[in-house]
Amino acid sequence: xxxxxxxxxxxxxxxxxxxxxxxxxxxxxxxxxxxxxxxxxxxxxxxxxxxxxxxxxxxxxxxxxxxxxxxxxxxxxxxxxxxxxxxxxxxxxxxxxxxxxxxxxxxxxxxxxxxxxxxxxxxxxxxxxxxxxxxxxxxxxxxxxxxxxxxxxxxxxxxxxxxxxxxxxxxxxxxxxxxxxxxxxxxxxxxxxxxxxxxxxxxxxxxxxxxxxxxxxxxxxxxxxxxxxxxxxxxxxxxxxxxxxxxxxxxxxxxxxxxxxxxxxxxxxxxxxxxxxxxxxxxxxxxxxxxxxxxxxxxxxxxxxxxxxxxxxxxxxxxxxxxxxxxxxxxxxxxxxxxxxxxxxxxxxxxxxxxxxxxxxxxxxxxxxxxxxxxxxxxxxxxxxxxxxxxxxxxxxxxxxxxxxxxxxxxxxxxxxxxxxxxxxxxxxxxxxxxxxxxxxxxxxxxxxxxxxxxxxxxxxxxxxxxxxxxxxxxxxxxxxxxxxxxxxxxxxxxxxxxxxxxxxxxxxxxxxxxxxxxxxxxxxxxxxxxxxxxxxxxxxxxxxxxxxxxxxxxxxxxxxxxxxxxxxxxxxxxxxxxxxxxxxxxxxxxxxxxxxxxxxxxxxxxxxxxxxxxxxxxxxxxxxxxxxxxxxxxxxxxxxxxxxxxxxxxxxxxxxxxxxxxxxxxxxxxxxxxxxxxxxxxxxxxxxxxxxxxxxxxxxxxxxxxxxxxxxxxxxxxxxxxxxxxxxxxxxxxxxxxxxxxxxxxx
Amino acid sequence: xxxxxxxxxxxxxxxxxxxxxxxxxxxxxxxxxxxxxxxxxxxxxxxxxxxxxxxxxxxxxxxxxxxxxxxxxxxxxxxxxxxxxxxxxxxxxxxxxxxxxxxxxxxxxxxxxxxxxxxxxxxxxxxxxxxxxxxxxxxxxxxxxxxxxxxxxxxxxxxxxxxxxxxxxxxxxxxxxxxxxxxxxxxxxxxxxxxxxxxxxxxxxxxxxxxxxxxxxxxxxxxxxxxxxxxxxxxxxxxxxxxxxxxxxxxxxxxxxxxxxxxxxxxxxxxxxxxxxxxxxxxxxxxxxxxxxxxxxxxxxxxxxxxxxxxxxxxxxxxxxxxxxxxxxxxxxxxxxxxxxxxxxxxxxxxxxxxxxxxxxxxxxxxxxxxxxxxxxxx
Lengths: 748, 379
Prior knowledge:
The structure holds two protein chains of two kinds. Chain A is mainly α. Chain A has helices spanning 2-21, 28-31, 42-52, 55-164, 168-185, 189-214, 220-232, 237-260, 269-298, 304-333, 339-363, 369-402, 410-433, 446-478, 487-515, 530-565, 580-599, 614-630, 633-636, 639-649, 663-683, 689-706, 713-729, 739-747. Chain A is elongated, with a radius of gyration of 62 Å. Residues 606-639 of chain A have low confidence and may be disordered. Helices cover 4% and strands 45% of the residues of chain B. A four-stranded antiparallel β-sheet of chain B has the order 1-28-27-26, with no helix packed on it. In chain B, strands 2-3-4-5 form a four-stranded antiparallel β-sheet, with no helix packed on it. A four-stranded antiparallel β-sheet of chain B has the order 6-7-8-9, with no helix packed on it. The interface between A and B is medium-sized, with 28 and 29 residues.
């Protein structure tokens, strides 16, 4: 029955819901045939059944329905019975409750009566005690007053004794207690005495406290105490803060003075710097930090203005400290700088940097003290390093110049000199790398690393010193007198300059870029391009080479000139041999050749063949040419005609050609100047028959041997031709020797 | 700087000596002495007419042999001296009177070009002991005296003040006993024309003619590392002179401080044979060398013309004029038209902007200084 009810309920709810949501019954038609449905239509159902089912099914259906109806009836009966039963039970229970409540009401009434009785009793007790209590209160008030009076009368003595015992805080406590009373009743005669006594003592107390405040060796705890007490005594905290600032300023200034008059004691510069910085940190910096900390402790509530005063003072002290540190450090480190020295310096600076940063945090200041200081010091140090480097180089160069041994082999000397020069710059760089070491705090600053690496090391040290070096090298050329450098050294140095131009400068730069965090080949930031330096070296090497050519040829020309001057060419005897001076000249040229060959490439030879028959072939062709001259005979040698013919065939000899850095060019330049000098000497003389023959022999000899040094034989030939033709012009009796004889003399 | 093409005049003979005809102050005229062992030598008088751009010449045969040096009288157009070497192969000096010579301002074309001139020897300047003469010098300005310097540095003074006759010759001892030969000499136009500078190889000595045997007034040891080939006094500043030599350098000296030259120019590639100040604008200095080049150098910093001062005075009113930048020291122009060694160079006495240079082959080039330079100096 209940199941049906719930089902009915459910259906009802469903119907309500569907009505609410407006769901139309789509299956209305079907529901017509649902026995349990809402729209069940019995007639339709029966009709449907009768129409659709067979008889048998109909009978079955009927039986089924009858069975269902019967079960439903019985279910309904059971339900009705059960409900009735429950109703009877409920009636019984209500009757029972009615009798129980009656008893409880009686109990409650009894309780109310008892309570009112208790209240009456309590009231009577309290009224009895009232009088006594008032008396006791009065008595205790009087006692309190008496005690205070006693205290007041005792106050001067107590204050005095506690001041004497230096128990200032107690004294202040007492005074603070009584101050108000004394003030209120001060005009009363009995109190005025006490008050004046007290005031006297308090003045002493205040003085003691101030003394303690000002005392130099006071600890911050004592200081704090005295400040607290003083402020309790009515000193304004602003003036105290001011006084505090002034006192500490004095102390810090003393520290500063001490530091600036600091004298080193250690023998080692590095250690001395460390010691100095240690002292700096421990005195000035430490005290500054302490001052600030104490101030913050003592005047936790200090106004912004007081605070500012102190901070200004501290900032000022540090502002002055930094230059002192800078000058001192720079002074102590001195001009001599070793690697170890630099390391100590950097360690010292780093320590200072860290301490300063800590103080700066305390000050909440964003000043760039330490970075400015360190950048400055780094700049000074790198400038000094550069200067030292240049001085060392200058000394080395002077050393080599003064102690140059002409037997030195150029090749080895180049290596040696380059090694020594590089060694010095390496040492300098290694010392400077201390500034960018990994363990160094300040070098972690990107800005610093960049400035130091680019501006100071690359520009200040590297570029500057190399530029100076190139200038020094060039200047060697201009030196005269005792400062004159040996030509071989000049040649060697020209090679050194070329090596710097070609690779040494670049490799040094790469090293610097690597060690000082500069991007490889970095060009921006107004950096001097490496090409500016290499160009200087190129220029220097050019100057040196030209100087070398000049001094070597100077010696040779002088030999030739002296030899020309010392002979009477009109009356000289028949030539039997080549003049010794010509042989000497050749020897010298071959020495120049071998020196230049050690240092320089061969250079391009115009038409040199490796043909071993070259010499004979060449000489025979030359002889033909020459024999055509001699066949002209003296009578036909019209000087002006010859002169003009000569001009037609000879090129203008270019003496200006700059010396190329190769062996051929160097030797050629020497030969050219030499032969041109020979020519000029010849033109100043007048020759006799044998005189010109001697020149003929000399020229032939030179021509035999000079070709091997040059790559432009034609030039040598035309110069020799010109010498001979000039000699012919300057000859009174121009009869040349038979070529065969000349050959014979020369090959002897 | 625009280049004006030089005028070329070719002699048929080799020549080393060239000088301006100082006595002629209106026509640009140069004298050249030829140097030939085999043919007859002569003095060529070459005149350049700027307007017609023509060169005319007149030849005076010189029978006494090849000419090593030609020097014109400082104010008489018809008097010259030469150092020559004749048949005896000895260097001697002679003073000649040339005839005919056109009167001042007259062109040489007025002479009969078919005829030859004549050189009449006025004086043969020979010392008694037959020494070889290295240089002949005319007394600057009035030309009343001549100095001959022998190769052994003996100095002889010849006085012509009385009617062109030689009088009162003074013969000095050689200045030094070394066998260094005299390579250059010149007569200072300052100090009452009493000072003569003589270069013996690398050393330079200056002597006072009044006390010639009492040693030099001052000397420069090793003025050049190679022999000095020529020297010239600044015509307008008394303490300055220029020397040149085989080291290819032209050095300028302040004689009050001889420890080092005040300016050293190394602009030649071979020996420098002659150096000459421009008389009117002494910042212009010519040098000629056996590198076949003539170099016009500016020595403005040592000049008597206060260019820098004028500049600063004018600066206020004409800033826009950029032409007037002060002349810097250094090479102004290098002339490379010669094919052979240039042994001599001379400024014209009539036109301060014209000069001639002579190379060994007998080629005479007449140049004018670049016009822009002229403007920058004049205005």
